[in-house]
Give the backbone structure.
Amino acid sequence: MSSQGVPRGAVLAVVHEPVALSPGGPLVLELRGPLGPADAETVAARLAQRHRAFGVALDSHRPGHHTLRLTPPAAGGLAALPADLLADLLAPPPPGGEILPVTGHQQTLLRAALTPAATSTGTSSGGNSGSSDSSDGSDGGDGGGVEQLYWDWSGPFDVARFAAAWQSVVDRECVLRACFDWVAAPRLVLHARAEADIAVCSPAAVTWPQLLRRDRARGFALHRPGLLRLTVLAAEPGGGGGAAPPRVLLTYHPALLDERGVHLLLREFYRAYAAGGVLPGGERRPDLRDHARWLAGQDTTAARQFWARAVPPPRAATRPGRPGVATGQSGPGLLDTRLRAPETFRLRSWAALRGAAESSALHLVWALLLYRAAGVSGPLPVSFGVQLSGRDIALPGAAGIPGLLDSPLPMTVTVDPAAPLAGLLHQVRDALLDLAAYPWASTETIRAWAPRPPAAPAPAAGPGPVAGPAAAPAAGPGPGAVAGPAAGVGPLCGAGGTLVRFDGPLVLPKVLRSELAAQGVHADTPRSAAGAAGGPLTLAARHDTAGGLVLGLFYDRAQLADEDAAALHSQCVRLLRALPEFRQAQASAGQLLDLLARAATPRMARPVPPAPHPALTVLRPGHPHADVICLVTAPG
């Protein structure tokens, strides 16, 4: 914010002295810095418009010094300055832009992206890819808080048309013109205009693994719009039958988009490409703005009551490995294994005959692996995250909204090795149905709703630019257990938790595929490269075009060494393949686990707690042409 004639280097400061307020008394703020009377009036008008519950009065003493008096609502008064109001003072929206609140899940991902550990430059000796060849890009590099998809372009490739089609999608989809602002409170800022970020590289200048590593290390500037980019590795010269086709790398930030949202954007891109580079129609509605309004209108009473009794207990097993030493490795890892179509059909039939889907069979097997890693006998609760799409809601058109609508929610079941397998299958099925009633919930809101033991010490809130609940407590004393208040929720946001994701296919409409085929273009199904795993370990399942079930294991190599990850992945696949053999009604969970009796239990390193931050952190030391920027941590 600036006015004409403002001295070079002037900054805006908002001064607020937190004193005890009389009932109904105003909050008094002094605005000092590059604000003339007209600028101050603009600020006051914006606050009056966005915060209608407040009475706003402005006194202008002189240029650069103004006083704002904010009178809170009569009912209840106000004890502190709201963070979103302070954010509107310090970081006004861009011209033509709109402001949306971030979801609890976005707060978690933003905090992870802004934590020093998330941006450290770990090196990797190479990841793993079980059934896919290693050149597909799972080797090396630090995830840098990004996700990556890639596919080979089949057919004629027109770079100008490709770029025009993506720019048309950016103009239509507000999510591609969004960025984040976290001054006082995290917010999503929608810009009126943004440019598609597209680059073309020559295979003579960079190899595919090098391109993946460089792209992951590049990350994103979260405060600038355009948190999705595309890089094309051009076709190898020669044009012969053996020449490699162009390969497209799509990189996005998981705090803005989920994978289904990316596939929705890809569908729009192909529509634009088939139409010559221009997407028919105007801006999408409904979009993130409509979803935010729908979300704000939800009655949370039933959800609060559900999570008051469904929060995972502190003794729940959450880690798929026994406590181990440091791995000596770093960076993301990826393993892929495919169940052939006949094996997938047998698994689906076994689950269907017992009234469940094949996703429930996957949840059952994962629950058994968590139980086995805990090293106990007798019944034990286990907890892991499941990913819900968040688009099965009572908002017309929600299924087509690209954005971050999905959310990991903790599923808790009790594993008893002596109980029938069918009973455990029904447990995971019913637990998922319960979670599906509240797909808009998040681990952040659940943690706020969950009852907390009065004797347990609350985790200290670490400093950082993103507001929200305190960070999750570190892993607790017992094998596979987590201690602390709302302990079962915390691991999904950080230390120790695992996530199981079942990705449904998003097939292009037949008419669109026909239009592309008529132009010689075949839309290949994108594949995932090792990126942000959403925690130390994510198990992602999807169907391939032949009907087989592909199981991808994304893991943090600092917590799970390649050898242990391979063992865990192999054991999961082995149990899934064996499950249809247990047809007897009384077949027990322990009998299935007996198949792994001779196999070693994987080891998993304990997560390292973050180092404490000083009260004053110098983010930029400054020089004659740049200001000093500091981050000040205030108690509470």
